[in-house]
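Model the whole thing, not chain by chain.
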Amino acid sequence: MSDLERLDRFLRTDPRDVGCDEAMAVLHIYADLVAGGEDAAGRYPGVAAHLLSCGPCGEDFAGLLQAVTGG
Amino acid sequence: MTAEGLDEESAAWLRRLGAGESERLAAERELHARLVRIALAEVRRRSASTPVTGQELDDIAHQAADDAMVAILAKLGSFRGESRFITWAYRFVILEVSSKLGRHYWRNPPVALDAGQWERLPDRFGIDPARHAETAGLLAEVRRVVEEELTAHQRRIFTAIVVDGIPLDALAARLGLQRGAIYKVTFDARRKIRRALVANGYLEETGLEQR
């Protein structure tokens, strides 16, 4: 990825992004879907968009997924 | 699955946590032990991205587990079985770890609030030092938009998060705001900056629709 692409990717906003509150409200449901191999992003596209864009929520998701998968 | 639609393990947790004193206390001890284990693993997983170290990290983990336990017991009635019980419970402790690390950041912060370290912006965007000269015009335009087109609130938050690299949860704790409020400000600032860069020919308007 070029420097320009990296900057562009950072600045891009996804209109599906539901924001922190909505993503955190269903984080446990989303994590169980992912852990179970289900199409979590298909069921919750706005949450998937948010977790890709929001560092802290993405970290929380990574931590929860690790916790429930025994990592 | 049980009659209530819960998996067996979740149903067992709920039954034990609602049982008579000795069974309930045993279940609470078991759940708390699990929360401590998850919290310790989580602070270690995040240790590279926080200035908090050593015993303070372990203390945060234990505090997070204690506070999560209180919250879980208080909200047990709101568990609707949309996930496994243990996933629902672990969510509390993960969020407590996040929140506490954010607050503890300010005990020994690597950068002060409102430092405005614009010279570090190329590093923040991961720009190769050999290409700093090539991207100088673009980054100067980013700075111009931040200084001239963002509101004072947007400017302060964007500068703290993006330019100075202050963790979002730490900034939220310092400013007394919710994570979601800070994120929304940075979301709007990113959109505004990108629109200006597109309008001035630095970036192309392609890909995802901008709201």
